[in-house]
């Protein structure tokens, strides 16, 4: 890669780490050079006998499983090793540096969060196949990746008043609140029960009493029929039409809906509102800043990937989509804000959770 080779010993080491990270007891890397014999034997031992009348799993089928597992581990490890090279190379080109003190500080913070007890950390080191040097390397690359990202988006947060006003005018609905109404309701299964509930309310019985006796809606029933802050257009259509056509304090119903029959009254009305441009300005500014930074990052990601892929030549048996001479990548969604492209950064959460 750019004139520098990835050592086979590093590949083998990280393959063992990747195999152990699957969580399987005594997990081992499938052995392609030996025709996957050990892997097939292990799978044969772990495969239960077929049910009566069912065919036995063949060695060929088990070998296919081993091949798939090996390729998955290989691609995962090559992506990690290549990312080490890409990020360090980019950091050197951009004059981005991380000090040993920064690495140690980040490492200690993540270690403390993931492993409150020292013995848990030691157990992780023993079972994961990683050394502390491995983890420190990943912390360093993670910090470099973050600094590269910060440098790429720096100065890309400028937003003009005109851009804010244009966004507001094109998206006024996003800054509007519909009319809302507080209700007291009783929901019954049949019309007869709804008529009885309405008659009881007309005769002066309390909503608490009537809701408890007649309502089949557990949520509103428990609060005396209260159904606060219902926005226009969010209720079942028949109920929505009735609620937003009713006068405050009027007892209405029964109203037939797909859920049953409603009797209700409107107890409070909150008028529809529209945020002004001045009120929405800060929210819009933050949105546009984020969009501008994401645009800059997306552009960098594309250029970064193309440049470093062009410098990455892979040997037979080790070709991935990150290689100049590898298979074509399957299109993926745009990388989320705050990331360097997949295949170019070590995984987040460098010191793994767990004990």
TrEMBL record:
Feature: compositional bias, Basic and acidic residues: 311-322
Occurrences of domain PpiC (ranges): 178-268
InterPro entries: PPIase_dom_sf (IPR046357), PPIase_PpiC (IPR000297), PrsA_foldase (IPR050245), Trigger_fact/SurA_dom_sf (IPR027304)
Pfam families assigned: Rotamase_2 (PF13145), SurA_N_3 (PF13624)
Superkingdom per UniProt: Bacteria
Region called Disordered, residue ranges: 311-355
Spans through the membrane: none
Keyword vocabulary terms for this entry: Isomerase, Rotamase
Compositionally biased region (Low complexity): 326-347
GO molecular function: isomerase activity
Designated name of the protein: Peptidyl-prolyl cis-trans isomerase
């Amino acid at each position: 890669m750019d004139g520098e080779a990835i050592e086979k010993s590093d590949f083998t080491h990280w393959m063992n780490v990747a195999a152990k990270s699957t969580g399987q007891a005594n997990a081992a890397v499938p052995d392609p050079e030996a025709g996957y014999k050990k892997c097939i034997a292990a799978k044969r031992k772990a495969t239960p006998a077929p049910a009566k009348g069912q065919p036995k799993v063949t060695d060929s089928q088990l070998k296919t499983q081993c091949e798939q597992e090996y390729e998955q581990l290989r691609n995962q490890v090559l992506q990690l090793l290549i990312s080490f090279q890409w990020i360090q190379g980019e950091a050197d080109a951009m004059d981005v540096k991380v000090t040993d003190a920064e690495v140690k500080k980040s490492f200690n913070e993540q270690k403390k969060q993931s492993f409150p007890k020292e013995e848990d950390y030691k157990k992780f080191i023993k079972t994961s196949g990683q050394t502390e040097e491995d983890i420190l390397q990943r912390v360093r690359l993670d910090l470099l990746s973050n600094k590269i990202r910060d440098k790429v988006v720096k100065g890309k947060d400028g937003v003009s008043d005109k851009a804010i006003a244009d966004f507001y005018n094109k998206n006024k609905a996003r800054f509007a609140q519909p009319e809302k109404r507080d209700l007291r309701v009783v929901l019954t299964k049949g019309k007869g029960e709804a008529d009885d509930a309405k008659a009881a309310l007309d005769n002066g019985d309390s909503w608490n009493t009537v809701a408890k006796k007649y309502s089949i809606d557990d949520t509103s029933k428990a609060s005396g029929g209260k159904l606060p802050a219902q926005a226009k257009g969010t209720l079942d259509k028949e109920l929505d039409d009735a609620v937003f056509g009713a006068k405050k304090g009027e007892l209405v119903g029964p109203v037939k809906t797909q859920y049953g029959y409603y009797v209700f009254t409107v107890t409070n009305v909150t008028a529809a509102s529209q945020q002004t441009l001045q009120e929405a300005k800060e929210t819009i500014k933050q949105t546009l800043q984020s969009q501008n930074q994401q645009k800059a990052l997306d552009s960098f990601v594309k250029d970064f990937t193309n440049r470093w892929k062009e410098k990455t030549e892979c040997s037979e048996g080790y070709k991935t989509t990150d290689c100049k001479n590898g298979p074509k990548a399957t299109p993926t969604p745009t990388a989320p804000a705050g990331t360097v492209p997949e295949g170019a950064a070590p995984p987040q959460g460098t010191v793994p959770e767990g004990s």
